[in-house]
Design a protein that fits this description.
Rossmann fold; 2 domains; alpha/beta; elongated; single chain
Length: 342
């Protein structure tokens, strides 16, 4: 015999509150005592309560604004803008508004942000390089607010839809290019070590060396942030060594900008004295001097695909796939060349 799903009335009776109080919590209202809210959330989680899907899934036009929440761990850069462009290309024709949020570098939104989302009742939530803890996932699930993660910070649960790119292949082809030019002492200046894409790119770097039968120097692998300042700081150190690298693989195009400045500070020419490979292929990279060799990560396509996946889930339909990794490819420009001495 199938167990009947709990209703709002069941939850209210169990917790000892009114039905409107449970409804307030479900809708993200803040005028409920914190202790009461926690008891209600615990009961919702225990009963695996899920609010009935909105009328939109049944083909009825919703009366309020149709919104998609797009949240970045850090969104004030050109990398984020590429993803935003991809999301808007999908949401614009569907007349879905996009609400942007930034987490100031954090990979987990605060509870206040979750409360605001529940009050807004968007069609769905798209998290970029960030994620939700188990409690937050259930809070959105119980309100029938779907969510998708783009460029995951870690390994999300198998039931969380994700869109990303093949970061391991990106690290592999970048390093193979440098090895093919004759470089044997290659540095890496990567993003945070606790971020999945960083680790995957470094794994690709190591695999390229292993396939070529070449050693790699662990002291030349630096972990930092996906920012120009981080690239500059680490490059100033490694380029000051008597055994400096002849090439550096940067974890992002922003990191590559910092490396290029550090090279100039050391009186090094690019690519004659130092080759640099970036990552992401932001539009600005082709206008640098010299234009940057970089790994194309299809950010706009990733944003558009994630947005489409989210709208499909909001319609009450299952997307064709809930785990997608798009391909990366090397774009060769003028910042790489054979080393001066091999």
């Amino acid at each position: 015999m199938v167990k009947a799903r709990a209703t709002i009335a069941d939850i209210a009776a169990e917790v000892g509150v009114s039905v409107p109080t449970v409804s307030k919590v479900l809708n993200g209202r803040v005028d409920v005592a914190e202790a009461t809210r926690l008891r209600i959330e615990e009961a919702l989680s225990r009963h695996e309560y899920r609010k009935p899907v909105s009328s939109r899934a049944a083909g009825v036009k919703a009366s309020g604004p149709r919104l998609l929440d797009l949240v970045f761990h850090e969104g004030e850069n050109l990398w984020a803008q590429e993803i935003i462009n991809g999301v808007e290309r999908v949401c614009g024709p569907e007349r879905v508004g996009v609400v942007l949020s930034g987490l100031g570098g954090s990979h987990r939104p605060p509870q206040e942000w979750i409360d605001d989302v529940m009050a807004r009742r968007p069609l769905g939530v798209l998290l970029v390089l960030s994620g939700l803890d188990e409690t937050q996932r259930h809070q959105l699930h119980s309100r029938s607010i779907p969510f998708v993660v783009l460029d995951t910070q870690g390994n999300p649960p198998t039931d969380v839809p994700t869109v990303g790119s093949n970061n391991w292949n990106g690290g592999l082809v970048a390093t193979q290019h440098l090895i093919g030019l004759g470089h044997r002492r290659i540095g890496v200046i990567m993003g945070p070590s606790d971020v999945l894409c960083s680790r995957a790119r470094v794994d690709g770097f190591r695999s390229a060396h292993d396939e070529a039968g070449l050693p790699w120097d662990p002291s030349l692998i630096r972990w930092g942030e996906f920012a120009a300042g981080s690239g500059f700081h680490h490059a100033m150190e490694v380029l000051a060594r008597p055994d400096r690298p002849t090439a550096i693989f940067a974890g992002s195009d922003y990191v590559a900008l910092g490396i290029a400045r550090a090279a100039r500070e050391h009186g090094l020419r690019i690519p004659e004295d130092l080759s640099i490979v970036g990552y992401d292929d932001l539009p600005i990279t082709q206008w640098l001097n010299p234009p940057l060799t970089t790994v194309n990560q299809p950010l706009r396509a990733m944003g558009g695909l994630a947005a489409q996946m989210l709208l499909t889930l909001a319609d009450g339909r299952a997307p064709s796939s809930t785990r997608v990794d798009l391909m990366t490819e090397l774009v060769v420009r003028d910042s790489t060349a054979p080393p001066a001495t091999v």
